[in-house]
């Protein structure tokens, strides 16, 4: 029998999964639709069957799942593997004992963690943090929301609710836009994918983004950070909007560097695909604002794993717990 | 022979020292003037003699110094006990091997640390952190400058240069006032003692602070946070200025809570003497801005040790190292 570990990234629309061997080598990856409206029991049963099916495929039916790690979009009770607050799924998903339910079905331990903290584990074990056991690293996921994760001296910082590292909800502009969280001027209101796309759409409507207009047929709802990334080469206003958003990310990064003096900052999520414009702006803002100690040695990099960070982190979680 | 430990708080104008026994009980405290212009060799020699003298006083000449901890205002090489950048002393104080010099004189190990990180150790060992070995605590010293220190899971976070925790240089207002550090809109520009006193002085000059005017004979240079604290009970504009500054502290505290999810925030330094106005404002801003997890269980308190935090922390440092 072959010992196998499964990593699961549970999203609002898709469930991504990977099966790894005991060395952490990924043997296969696949995904299914979430259909969260079916309710937690049905969805978890489907995920369980999906994992068994994937395990059988890589082992000719001779594999056994020794552990499952799962990243979920929201707050969880890490110790007990129970969901707490998952804003992107239905309200049925509150207080679901996911670890117990899936463990009954699969007969192995199940570990649950917030998805961005899980992606942070991915970067730690398989990305920029690989082979650096004492690294202090901050991961910021710039996507539909903005989240983060802290690794301090090689160890993921969770806090009592697994909620440490919510860097998207730092106040950047005290009188800034209202945030979904209830506060205002959070980084998420200024540099999430939707925030940037919405500014791109506005610039297009007032005639300042002809290239973007052509790319999305003038439909504001079609504006994506990807389209903006292309348009930025020809539309100066779009480029400026991206630089503005990146400057806010830079302030958030400068603040966390001033607080923690980490070895590395890793930027992930869809917005990170802006690549050089984002990284160069963030680095310039950090050099400008962090003056209390030299920052040349602090690396500011794009995620090495990209969209795979979540599922890879879930594999790392399956293999070893993050809670003492 | 009695085993003794000395804690030293080296400031720009005064050197405070305490002698403790091996249990950490403070036996005596005293202070001398720094006269930093005499240069490091002369000042350190004087400090050494002062410590020997204090030790002899508490032990009838039968004591021996087993260790000295010293907090200094600036950056130090913690591993080697060498000063790096001490902006409040003369330039002669750069790269001084304090540990070696004082150790030659006293014949015991000398440990050096930034003064605010030392005060953080004081709160950890003798103040709010006492008997809480796993506490995660953030100390913010609101004085002439604004500094801070982080205790994560019971352990002081230093970072590679002992510079982690520089919370006074978080950006609070991206386009705010120029800061001494070279950045702008840092917490220090908005909530240090001088920043608050300068606003008090301005309000007095334009006739909005009659009580403060009486207290300081209309002399702007005489305005202190202490005078403002008294005037705030009668001058609404002064009260408002204090609340404004406290709101900025609140934003900084909210950001660090969102980042680290600590158990406790401790506010120290001269500005902390505003007491209730400061604490209530900070607590209200935190409740308003931290929405990602419940904050009721996060204590936000005034320093228990006040001006003694530095020298008490230096005693803790003398008794046990903070570096692995």
From TrEMBL, chains A, B:
Gene3D superfamilies: 3.30.420.40. Its EC number is 2.7.1.2. SUPFAM superfamilies: Actin-like ATPase domain. It comes from the Bacteria. The keyword Kinase applies. One of its GO terms (molecular function) is glucokinase activity. InterPro entries: ATPase_NBD, ROK, ROK_cs. Keywords: Kinase, Transferase. Pfam families: ROK. PANTHER family: BIFUNCTIONAL UDP-N-ACETYLGLUCOSAMINE 2-EPIMERASE_N-ACETYLMANNOSAMINE KINASE, ROK (REPRESSOR, ORF, KINASE) FAMILY. Belongs to the ROK (NagC/XylR) family. This is Glucokinase. The gene is glkA.
């Amino acid at each position: 029998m072959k010992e196998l570990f499964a990593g699961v990234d549970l999203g609002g629309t898709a469930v991504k999964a990977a099966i790894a061997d005991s060395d952490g080598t990924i043997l296969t990856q696949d995904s299914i639709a979430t259909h969260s409206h079916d309710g937690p029991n049905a969805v978890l049963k489907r995920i369980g069957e999906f994992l068994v099916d994937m395990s059988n495929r890589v082992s000719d039916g001779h594999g056994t799942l020794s552990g499952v790690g799962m990243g979920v979009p929201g707050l969880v009770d890490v110790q007990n593997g129970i969901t707490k607050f998952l804003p992107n799924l239905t309200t049925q998903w509150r207080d679901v004992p996911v670890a117990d339910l899936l463990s009954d079905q699969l007969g192995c331990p199940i570990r649950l963690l917030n998805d961005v903290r899980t992606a942070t584990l991915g970067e730690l074990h398989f990305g920029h943090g690989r082979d650096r056991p004492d690294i202090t690293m901050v991961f910021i996921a710039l996507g539909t929301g903005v989240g983060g994760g802290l690794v301090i001296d090689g160890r993921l910082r969770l806090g009592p609710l697994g909620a440490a590292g919510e860097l998207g909800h730092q106040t950047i502009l005290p009188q800034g836009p209202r945030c979904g969280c209830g506060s205002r001027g959070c980084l998420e209101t200024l540099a999430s994918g939707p925030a940037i796309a919405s500014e791109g759409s506005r610039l297009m409507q007032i005639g300042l983004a002809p290239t973007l207009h052509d790319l999305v047929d003038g439909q504001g709802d079609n504006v994506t950070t990807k389209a903006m990334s292309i348009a930025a080469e020809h539309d100066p206003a779009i480029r400026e909007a991206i630089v503005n958003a990146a400057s806010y990310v830079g302030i958030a990064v400068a603040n966390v560097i001033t607080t923690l003096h980490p070895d590395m900052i890793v930027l992930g999520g869809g917005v990170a695909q802006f690549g050089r414009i984002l990284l160069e702006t963030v680095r310039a803002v950090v050099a400008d604002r962090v003056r209390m100690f030299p920052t040349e040695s602090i690396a500011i990099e794009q995620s090495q794993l990209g969209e795979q960070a979540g599922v890879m982190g879930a594999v790392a979680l399956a293999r070893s717990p993050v809670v003492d």
